[in-house]
Structures are given as structure tokens and as C-alpha cells.
Amino acid sequence: MTINKHILLGVSGGIAAYKAAELVRLFKKQGADVRVVMTKSALQFISPLTFQALSGNSVHSELLDTDAENAMGHINLARWADAFIIAPATANIIAKLSYGLADDLLSTLYLAATCPVYVAPAMNQAMWNNAVTQENVEKLKRHGIGIIGPEQGDQACGEIGFGRLSEPVDICKHLMVALDKQALSPSQSLQGLNVLISAGPTREPLDPVRYLTNRSSGKMGYALAQAALNAGANVTLVSGPVSLVAPKNVHLIKVETAEQMHEAVISKALENAVYIGAAAVADYSPVIIQAEKIKKQDDQSSLLLRKNKDILADVAKLDKRPFTVGFAAETDHLEVYAQDKLVRKNIDMIAANWVGREQGGFDSELNALHVFWKTGDKKLVMTTKSQLAEQLINLIAERLHA
Ligand code: PMT
Hints:
The protein is an alpha/beta fold. The relative contact order is 0.09. It folds into two domains: 6-185, 3-Layer(aba) Sandwich (Rossmann fold); 189-286 and 299-401, Rossmann fold, CATH 3.40.50.10300. The longest helix has 17 residues, at 385-401. 36% of the residues lie in helices and 25% in strands. Strand 6 (151-154) and strand 7 (160-164) form a beta hairpin. The protein is elongated and about 75 Å long. The protein has an eight-stranded mixed sheet, with helices on both faces. A five-stranded parallel sheet has the order 2-1-3-4-5, sandwiched between helices. It has a two-stranded antiparallel ribbon with strand order 6-7. The structure holds ligand PMT. Ligand PMT binds at residues 200, 216-221, 258, 277-281, 283, 308, 310-312, 326-329, 341, 353, 355, 361-363.
């Protein structure tokens, strides 16, 4: 039962807009306080009076409405919400959200909202299947937006296929489960804590066109950033070069070399309660970076490398250091090497994963971890990196509060 939660419902203009009225009724039944925002085209399909009567609150549709700004300005409305759901979401509003356009109240609220956002699409099946719509939806997913539906079936336009708005009762159920998850037990929460995470590879230049790097995609570190956000943390993500979109609401610091990552992490470490080193930092970098492209000459060539500073060990050496969590990426003797790193680097926890195997590790969607701390250990079985990140964040929160 989700009592006292603030749900902001965005209604965009489609024939399914009438179903949003039922959604308000169901949310109210669950004890939530509901406010409704409508786009201009939604006003063509259903009257704001319906939502006002059902929610007991005024309905908002104008971005620049002085009366509304006095009562509940758009930024306050975004701050007020514990969850923001857009249902029905047309192809147009999905495209606007994915490109960050903010030319009306609903799309502006999306950019201003810091709470979890959910989108329930509803449109003609051909529009849903269009590659552009699919790309936009994928982009929203990468930004951490929950997509609910759509369902398959008969459509108002007479066609059959995917594009029907999910049933209000299913949307309501989905949101209630998500809100209950948000209300984590205190031992699982990082509410209000600052969490610093490193992710991705580093690049160590050899000359203007070449560098040494590794296979890290950043997926594990970015999933941890999202999971820490979901647990209520303020997240700073120090990222090496990756092709991922950072979760909405993280403070992203982009770096390239191990030296830059060291500088960024150390400068932020003391502002944070937790540091998670998920990045695959180069252990060595070339002693000389050639100013010009290195020419092909002898049959054999060698590189002189210098050991890089160890970011994780240096964080652990700080006075009043954050709770420090490392990763161990191993091709052999996983448990032995991981426990050795836990002790040698003097950190609080280490998450060991196999790399170079068929499943898991670098660049995979899946991973498994064996987590060690000084007084115990826990195996987290192979699953998606986002689920694994959630489990690891829960474990970190538990150990932190222990
Ligand atoms: O990015 P993905 O494709 O999703 O892949 C995820 C991952 C396999 C990269 C990730 O799960 C992982 O294991 N990250 C750590 C990789 C690594 O560099 O492991 P390591 O065993 O070499 O290093 C041990 C720890 O020391 C790590 O926390 C590392 O960030 C840290 N380190 C290493 C060297 C260095 N100079 N400074 C460091 O802080």
C-alpha cells in the first residue's frame, strides 16, 4: 500500500487519454496524492475537469501561467513528485523527451524531475514499430526511464499490433511495486549519501593517433551509478571513454588517462561516503608520448612503460576515507587474487569477477560477482549488470550501516 506518495501524471494527446482518468482513480485508491499535467493536444481528448474532480487538485497545462506559478510552479511540481509517469505517451512526446526538448510544461517537467520517471507508450502499431520510435525508446531506457508496455491488440485505428496503452490496473501495479522498492529498508538505503563511482577503461597515449587501453565498456560502472541513484544517493561518476549515456541526474566527470582519473577521483573522494572503483584503470602507461606519429621501422620494437598510481589504494590511504570498494578482474585464481587485493590495498570490500570467459566480465550484458569483505563474503550469481548492480549496492549499504 503506497500511502502519502506524490504521483505526477503526465497526459499527452492520444485516444487513450481517457484511460488516464482511471489511472488517477487507481492511484488515489492506493492512498497517493496525484497531480495531473496535460499537453495541449491531450486537452482535445479529455477535459481537465475530469482529472481535477478525480485527483482533487488543479490540473496544469501551461508552462508560463502566472497563477499556476504562484500556486505550484513547474520546478516545485517536479520537486514535489516521488514518481512521474507519462501515460499515455505518444510517439511525439517520446521523441521530445529523448531529445531533451522542453517547449511545454510536460517536457520541461521531465527535464526538471529528479524522481524516477515512467513512460507508458500508446500509438498506432506502425508508429510504434518505426525505427525512429524504437531508437527514442531505447534512448529513454538508457537514461534510466522505466517503459511500461505497450500491449498488443486491437487498436482504435482498426489495426492490430503493439501500441495499445497497458491497462490502467497493470500500470498502477507496476508503479506501486516500483514505489515500494524505493522505500527500501534503512539498511539498504543510500538516501542522501554522496557516492563516487569510476567506470570504463582508460586510454594511455603513445603518439597523437595511438593509445593503450582495454575491453571495458563501462556497463558495470554505469549500472552501479543507476542503482546508487535508485537507492537515494547523489552520484558522481568519473568515466573513461565509453559510448554509453550517463544516467540522468549523475554528476559526470569525463576523463581519458589513468592520471586524469586519479586526479578526478582523489579530488572528490573526501566529499563522498562511498567510493566504488569499477573502472579498468591501466596499470602502466608509456614513459614517452611521441609528439609525432611513430613510424614503422625495425621488425621488432619495444615500449618503455611506467607504473600508474593506484587510485583505489590511494583513496584507501586518505584520512577519513570513504567506504572503499574495489573490483578484481581476473582470468585465474579469482578468489585468491581478490582477497589479496582486499588486504594489500586495505579496502573495505572487493567485488571479484571473471574476465576473458564466454559470459560475463568485459563488455557483456551479464556478469557474476564474488564479493569479499574482512569478515565475510557473498556470491552474486550471473545476471544482468543492472540487477547485479542493485544487489551490490544493497550489500554496500548493508556493510556501510553495519
Ligand atoms: O566495463 P564493463 O565492460 O562493464 O566491464 C566491467 C569490468 C570487468 C571492467 C568491472 O566489473 C571490473 O572488474 N572493473 C575493474 C577492472 C580492473 O581494473 O581490475 P583490476 O583487478 O586490474 O584492479 C583492481 C582494482 O584496482 C579495481 O577496482 C581498479 O579500478 C583499481 N585500480 C587498478 C589500477 C590502478 N592504477 N588504479 C586502480 O584504482
